[in-house]
């Protein structure tokens, strides 16, 4: 099924000059980018996005990590994009990530795991609305010039 999903390149991805390499993984796979922007996360956005972890001991570390600099938000539309992208991204803990996945190749540890990807189509819809104005910042286009 065609799905839209959200990816965040976290502040360490931006600061280590990995934006292009990581987006390249998705483009090489053929996935269609339908939205892209750099932004700072404010407290409201962090609390909405990571509120389910607010009572965890590592929550303050998430807040300082995710506010250490801008992130790049990416919206993708493709067949089964949620599962496809989570496979390319690898497990939350880079130590457990499949060799060749983005987290296995680039991420330092679970506190600095370089990238976020929505974990279900339902979450993806909520997260796309959280990070994008979906009526003006997501694009519906056909690849008429691709061949
Ligand atoms: P992410 O996919 O963005 O979703 C939740 C984030 O919490 C996760 O990536 C990690 O960056 C962060 N995190 C830090 N410590 C842990 C932990 N022990 N278990 C799960 N997530 C953690």
Polypeptide structure, described:
It contains 7 helices and 4 strands; from the N terminus they run E-H-H-E-H-H-E-H-H-E-H. By secondary structure, the protein is α+β, with helices and mostly antiparallel strands. The chain has a single domain, classed as Nucleoside diphosphate kinase-like domain (Alpha-Beta Plaits, 2-Layer Sandwich). It has a 4-stranded antiparallel β-sheet with strand order 2-3-1-4. It is globular. The chain binds adenosine-3',5'-cyclic-monophosphate (CMP). The site of adenosine-3',5'-cyclic-monophosphate has 8 residues, from loops. Adenosine-3',5'-cyclic-monophosphate is lined by residues 53, 58, 62, 92, 110-111, 113, 116.
Label this structure with key terms.
globular, 147 residues, binds adenosine-3',5'-cyclic-monophosphate, 19% strand, alpha+beta, single chain, Alpha-Beta Plaits, 7 helices, 4-stranded antiparallel β-sheet
Write a short abstract of this structure.
The chain has helices at residues 11-15, 19-29, 43-50, 59-66, 81-89, 102-106, 121-131, and strands at 2-9, 32-39, 71-79, 115-117.
